[in-house]
Specification:
single chain, 246 residues, mainly alpha, 14 helices
């Protein structure tokens, strides 16, 4: 080794490794997310994947804004839910509002592709970190897409997260957007919301009716819920059978 090479400082961020953290974190999240469809992924292997995911997320967090830059570039390139999960998780950890705003705009454009990853990031983070975002995204001024993400994340976290919402969960059951009403049915999975959920069994949207019926099944309320759910399944089956093309 030459004297010049020996005197060269060791960088505290090795960007190829940081990029690898971002890529591998998205990969392992995808494996975990699709695990319910695998006949071969056993619980020990699933726990191993989860540990690897946590390790790569930790590497990105240590890299700080260099890690966030890599995560954003990966999301912009691939626009997949795994990249959305990594970007959302890291932006929330680092409290980087510009990245959260950009991610929110991307989710509005392609909610079917990205929202699942963002919801998972919110539910995986410590509640103290996710809580302010849940409140902001479920405020009365929020658009439907972030509101759906907040409600779905609360449904995953559990009833303890209901207090973080920007409004009482029952108010979202009356929201003009059907996607928000359907997400609210999942979050309103508690006996106190049984009356409001019963009203949603007669909703104009089949998805809302189905979600309300499932929620009532968990709360042991509504004798008509199983029949409503069965009709929704038949309606979806008939629609699928009549569909053509891709």
């Amino acid at each position: 080794m030459t004297d010049a090479a020996a005197d060269r400082p060791i960088p505290n961020r090795i960007l190829p490794l940081v990029r690898r953290h971002a890529e591998d974190a998205a990969f392992y999240w995808h494996q975990i997310d699709r695990s319910t469809e695998s006949l071969h992924l056993r619980p020990p292997r699933l726990r191993h994947f989860d540990a690897l995911l946590a390790a790569h997320l930790e590497g990105l967090e240590i890299a700080g804004h260099d890690g966030l830059s890599c995560a954003r570039k990966a999301l912009e390139r691939w626009l997949k839910p795994g990249e959305a999960f990594v970007c959302a998780w890291l932006a929330l950890q680092l409290k980087d509002q510009p990245t959260l705003d950009a991610l929110g705009r991307a989710c509005v454009r392609t909610p079917d592709a990205l929202l699942r990853g963002v919801i998972c990031a919110l539910s995986r983070l410590p509640f103290d970190t996710a809580g302010p975002c849940l409140a902001a995204w479920s405020s009365r001024q929020a658009s439907p897409t972030p509101t759906v993400a907040a409600l779905r994340a609360v449904a995953l976290i559990g009833r303890s997260a209901l207090e973080a919402l920007g409004a009482p969960v029952a108010t979202f059951l009356e929201h003009p957007d059907a996607h928000v009403r359907a997400a609210a049915c999942r979050a309103a999975n508690e006996p106190a919301c049984a009356t409001a959920l019963l009203a949603r069994l007669r909703d104009d949207d089949a998805t809302v009716r189905a979600e309300a019926a499932i929620a009532l099944g968990f709360t042991a309320g509504g004798d008509e819920a199983p029949a409503v759910l069965w009709r929704c399944i038949l309606e979806q089956a008939n629609r699928t059978e009549a569909a053509t093309g891709w």
